[in-house]
Amino acid sequence: MLFFYYLIFLFFFFIILRPFSTFIHELGHGIPALLFTDKKVTLYLGSYGNPKKSIKIHMGRLELFLNRNPFHWKIGLCVLEQKTLSINKQIIIDLMGPIASLVLSFILTYLVFFSDLNDNTRIILFFFNVSTYYDFFVNIIPSKNPIELYDGLIVFNDGKQIIDLLKYKKVPEEYNIGVDYYNNKQYNQAIVEFEKIYAKGFQEGIIYQLLISAYLQIKDYSNASRLNDLYNNKFKKNFNSDDYINSGLIKSISGEYEKALIDYNKAIELNQKNSIALNNRGYNYNLMENYESAIKDFEEAIALDEDFAYALNNRGFAKFKLGLKEEGLLDLEKSMKLDGNNSYCYLNYGIYHYDNGEYEKALEYYKKAKDLDEKTYLLDKYIERVETKLNL
Fold first, then answer.
1. What DSSP element (H or E) covers 80?
2. Confidence (pLDDT) at 14
3. What are phi and psi of 44, to 5 degrees?
4. pTM, whole model, 2 decimals?
5. Structural domains in the chain plus CATH codes
6. 305: alpha, beta or left? (left if phi > 0; alpha if psi -120 to 50)
């Protein structure tokens, strides 16, 4: 009978109480995240970001993934679609998870020691109370041990993230202004603010990252390259997978394909599930006319994200060049449905028609690509070539 009682206790504890504790902790992150952003916030219960084998629940901008195996619910993750926020807001979001756990612990402490509950219930709640205090301390005490997410990226516990953010508290006021511009895709204005910070001598890694990214967004590759060289000289040992992606893209656009390949290889080595790194390396292989290797990378990227429009588009181009025209067209058609404003998709449609000798049709697609993004890489070269064919 006693053994049966222990089984009931363990079941109740691990299937109901521990998942509830994890949910409260992640909700502590999620509620302020919803208040501070206008984009989607996703909570994972039972995984570090893995949406597969999970039950999906939508509540407005809040998205919840519940692992189908409740015994995994002791871990969780809160992911914000909006990636850049002011430092104060980031600190509050990180801090509210442990605070939510602590508030739950105080409630349980009251129920265990100051309520009239029966002894069996108080025993269960006592052990649950111990575990909630453990949740609080294990999250709030900074740890240098990284947590590996489902996609291969690493993060640190709440305490470590808060300490790192506090280091940036002395950042000039232009930082928050720049971040707001960046979040609203006003990259030119963001650059003005971040350059002010840089000129004031606040030259931390985050400023380099934001400036490089903003310059890449407006396709100012000269300034992106300038800052990437400075960032590389100062912070190379701290480069993450995304830093190597940006560095590789700058080199690809500059025609330094072999050097770009080294950066993309490093990006993938650091995060084998980085679909953007795989797509970009595949794109670099396309530029090197190594279409077989390119397709392998695109297929890996698409396996990670089946709706990755850029990878589908790039794979379509590679298939054209290998003579697989019908398959390539299917990729372009799917890419177009996913992202109808992708200038590179129109460029590749133009290349398809050019290779078929349909020069007027090719020029039509090239001009559409030009309308969408006049800085599309190599577009002017393709337009000049087709206009020569048409004697324009």
1. strand 76-80
2. 63
3. -110, 125
4. 0.70
5. 2-166 (no CATH), 174-389 (1.25.40.10)
6. beta
